[in-house]
Amino acid sequence: MKKAEKSKESKESNKKQIDFRKMSFYQIWIRSFCDGNGDGIGDLYGVYDKLEYIKSLGVDGIWFSPIYPSPNADYGYDISNYKDIHPDYGTLEQFKKVLDRAHELGLKVLLDLVINHTSDEHPWFIESCKGKDNPYSDYYIWRDPHFKGETKLPPNNWYSQFEGLAWEYNEQRGQYYLHVFAKKQPDLNMDNPKVREEVKNIMRFWLDLGVDGFREDVINFISKVPELPNGWSFVPAINGLPFYKDGPNLYQYLQEFRDVALEYGAVQIGEAPFTSVKTALTYIGGRHRVLDMLIQFDTILADCFMTEYVYHGFRLRKLKRAFGKWQYGLQGRAWFALYLENHDHPRVVNRYGSIQYWKASGSMLAACYILQRGTPFLYQGQELGMTNIALSSIDKYLDVAAKNAYNTFFLWESVERRLARIHVSTRDSARTPVQWTNGPNAGFTTGKPWFYVNPNYTFINAQTEEQDPLSILNFYKRCLALRKRSRTLLHGTYREYYPLSSKIYMYERMYTDQGRGLEERILVVCSFAAHDHSYRMPRGFNYKKAKLILDNYISEEEMKAGKTAEAGTLRPYEVQVWKFRKKLSV
Length: 586
Ligand code: NOJ
Ligand code: CA
Fold this sequence. Notes:
Strand content: 15-25%
Number of strands: 22
Number of helices: 17
Bound molecules: 1-deoxynojirimycin, calcium ion
Oligomer: single chain
Helix content: 25-40%
Mean pLDDT: 96
């Protein structure tokens, strides 16, 4: 068959892709989501029970962080079997029940595809260690030691992002293996066609079962420069980055995986640390894109330098620059994944909001990102305004990255100072059990929770917030509902005003409906100030014609009864959303 005919045929056999642009997603980090069988660990039984709750938020799908068997060196991101469910979380059968029920409720389901590395307990790695001539010998990145006299040295000077050097010597094989993350996460050799076939196989396994797509872990790291040259960066943890990020064959490999996804109409969201707009566009731009959206990092680094451990305090202008960079950069070219939290970052209320104005800031932050152009992602507990936990000793933390940061950097500082750095930076703050009720263990489990429950569950919990019309929970629902019914918010353009203000973030979404002869503008005005603050509407916006459509100080009911806000003044962390309509002249 000729190439053109073949590609035509495969295009025809492709299923229609799911409409990810109109959707929003809820992320589950299962271990802390909800325990259904009383052993203290979140699981798929708990998820099943909470599917209606998830639906009630107004989202359209779920992304599961890894639920596969894993020794949990990196809580699921070290996989020892790609085609099964971790026994802590249930069985394949239970997963299928969750999937079917989710589909009945109209929720799509995405899984995490972690293919940059496996666990060192994966059978492929165990086999690969056995020598240079077994079927799995070339599944990982092995290199001979480099000798200086008698001394055995690693093949290059790269550091890992999680634990010391990026190389670990394996006695059995007599070689070093590469691990860009923890020692227990050996990098796969994606240049080996057999490994890529395995990846496609894994994708098909889950797609055949009915899942709707994947979030793809550190996907821009999967192709390495084959020579693995020494790095030169002053930041050791990323000195190898230029040689393993956006490697020479990345596009080709993504294309191969894309072909599989498209047969099923699946959606693909790639996580891409350290990526630029220009590079992102090569993967997500246009019809021939190999991914649908990218998870960038700029918008979650507004209070730190490169990593949360190097904290410098929140800077609104830095956040706005990051928003603008991606909104303007992708507008008209590609689609964006909007998020402020996930399992890798501390809670956003602590970071960008205010504990003093917890309710106002937690709800303002919802509108501040959900109403931008893109597909919003919410992380479990974010919709409740869950906050960071401050544990009294480093020994109580579990995250490999936190422990490494604590034991490697700022060693000259006092224990208290370093612990304070952990408090503002650790991923463990996002991993405390979800607070469902004000009852024992926050309603997360009837057993002993596997990790600390944040003591503030007595007032931050779903049950209490459901009753409060002005709760963060109810405000998330209002934002998602508003977005869903507004063409302007779904499809309109983005434009920012007053970029230099360090207290106010203001942007417009604009949509021209030629058919109805209407132009609609929605102006989102967010205060990041802990006091009243005045503002002016930009030129061309007429106060008198403004209609308030959302405000975190005014409940839905009060709005329906006609209550409005004072345009031009914001209370602490208030968000006002104004609508303007104009008839187009013919
Ligand atoms: C990104 C994941 O989100 C994170 O949790 C994990 O530790 C690293 N990738 C390595 O897999
Ligand atoms: Ca359980």
